[in-house]
Amino acid sequence: MEHDQQPEPTPERQSAASSSGRRQSPAGKRAPVIKDVAALANVSVSTVSRYLNDSPKLSEESRARIAHAIALLDYRPSRVARGLVNSAVQSIAVLSSNTTLYGSAMTIQGVEDEARANGYPVTIAKLDGESTAGLRASVNMVMDLNPGGVVVLNYDAVAREALAMLPDSVAKVAIAGDRVDDVAELDQIDLCENQAGRELTEYLLGLGHRTVIHVTIPGGGGGYSRTAGWEAALRGAGLPVPDVRHCTWNPKDAREIGRRIGRGVVSGDATTAVFAGNDEIAMGVIRGLADCGVRVPDDVSVVGFDDHPLADVWSPALTTYRQDFAAAGRRAARLLVERLGARSRGEDLPSRRVELPGELVIRDSEAAPRAR
Amino acid sequence: MEHDQQPEPTPERQSAASSSGRRQSPAGKRAPVIKDVAALANVSVSTVSRYLNDSPKLSEESRARIAHAIALLDYRPSRVARGLVNSAVQSIAVLSSNTTLYGSAMTIQGVEDEARANGYPVTIAKLDGESTAGLRASVNMVMDLNPGGVVVLNYDAVAREALAMLPDSVAKVAIAGDRVDDVAELDQIDLCENQAGRELTEYLLGLGHRTVIHVTIPGGGGGYSRTAGWEAALRGAGLPVPDVRHCTWNPKDAREIGRRIGRGVVSGDATTAVFAGNDEIAMGVIRGLADCGVRVPDDVSVVGFDDHPLADVWSPALTTYRQDFAAAGRRAARLLVERLGARSRGEDLPSRRVELPGELVIRDSEAAPRAR
């Protein structure tokens, strides 16, 4: 990298640079400052400053020269140069009980992309689910930054509790979860999980399976959840609803559940289809079934949820239900930006609910049940 | 959830609540306020306020009663109550060109956990690698929040460029990447990737493989990288260094590379071992080899990097090199907290470099080469 071709700065130069706070980066890479613009445009620094602050006291001609110099230098004025040093930087805060799972990470990236495009930095807070006190502390810490708006990844009960802790006055968007009616200034993005769970289950029943076992993600359940959709499909077909198998986010635990299901199949029970709460759980279940010599989809069909990047690479390629988490994050940020814009105009927006349905993705992990 | 048992607030109540900014959450869940503490302790609000601000003008007896009330109510004073309303909230900023990949997401969570434990909220900025202008804009946006310190996930050239754009004056920690000597106020966490790549390669050579093909992650390379370690191991064994196969983060592309390698094997070339730049790439390569009827590890050995949560569940279970990303993130945040603490005492810390070596994890995806 070109940076490495730079001579090592001596300690003196370093500390001098530090104390002066001056940027020290490889030649050519140094961020241009207002003085560079003034020099190139052949005007005074204060003239450039007037330009940056849209002062009317500026000739069209110098305005044009400065604009040209800024373009040439690829100059990015700091907030100070823009005279905004005393105005608060509004940020968008994201609250989530997990920031590393595929769905959460993609959602946060979507929020980040859209927020940045609109000039809002993003703060994230991993919600502390250990205790109400800890949860409130993690929420307060972010609220202390006075974010312009908050996005809550409402994927579990911890997030739902945090949602209820937020001041009414702050603009909020909740992604996923049940419909919320007791929180003010809230917009909601509905990932239509209930419909998705019903579709997946009905699809398996349509292949001839007599019932479908469901392995749920942590905090699954709730009227709008994929689990509720699974139940609805079974009841709709006049079938009894088997006990839900509860799993953690750890694929190793899913593998253990797969082994338990596998032992049942080997001993001749009626299990022929499994709907896993997400793709990683489906992968663990499939591996656990294989540990017992149970083949997918020949002996048992297994479908997942999300369309994880590895779902297609897994063997057999996973049939799943695609969720566009990045789009949900982008849309959430846009809803906030719109609400904040309306506020700045003294307007008030009604609560909005946006539906972002996913889609059934059929691959190779399911089949019609074999006569056993 | 209990929240749902609350009556729906009427629009009037909502807007009233909003305008007053008063918290509105289900009974029993309402965050206790300073008045509740005063009432329970049977003292005045201003007395509680004096307590919160460590005023000496307070009798031991009321001090004890207030402490007891705070404990009973699980009261968390806001910054306002603590009289900190006018003090800046120092945050820790994380810069990364990607926030969704397993390694990045885990590292960010580590930073978040440690920062929160020390009272610092975390801001993340996904670095815009499209253009220098965009990159500078994404860096400036975070710097506008005046973070107390910055953690750069130095996993690629974009992050390295961002590192050079940061003001010297701000405290920084770089995680991974080559040794950096031209950036002031910088601590570094070395994940010892070079050693890891060398170990993995030497392990495969030790099994009898004549050479090892390397499929690199984007931006791989650089003297401290796993790729450099692979090269060093081959040269150390007096072997020629085959061309590096460049992959994206998308497992589908890794699968295509696996197919190309597989076609070579089928047509009788000498390939018997592959070192993939990370576990997702290893999974893709293995699937691509399988597409050609090439078995792992029977025909070709494939090892990954990171110890992804699915590495153990994958079939065959992946032999890989475990990296403790969460520990790297936590350590980075601690280095910043120490540096900021020293600054607040008017002290200056020397630049520190912390080594966090990973460990070889042997599973089932490699074997001695078969005579072909």
From TrEMBL, chains A, B:
It comes from the Bacteria. CDD domains: HTH_LacI (cd01392). Residues 1-33 are annotated as: Disordered. This is LacI family DNA-binding transcriptional regulator. GO terms for molecular function: DNA-binding transcription factor activity; transcription cis-regulatory region binding. Keywords: DNA-binding, Transcription, Transcription regulation. SUPFAM superfamilies: lambda repressor-like DNA-binding domains, Periplasmic binding protein-like I. The lineage of its organism: Bacteria, Bacillati, Actinomycetota, Actinomycetes, Bifidobacteriales. The keyword Transcription regulation applies. InterPro entries: HTH_LacI, LacI/GalR-like_sensor, Lambda_DNA-bd_dom_sf, Peripla_BP_I. Residues 32-86 form the HTH lacI-type domain. Residues 13-28 have a biased composition (Low complexity).
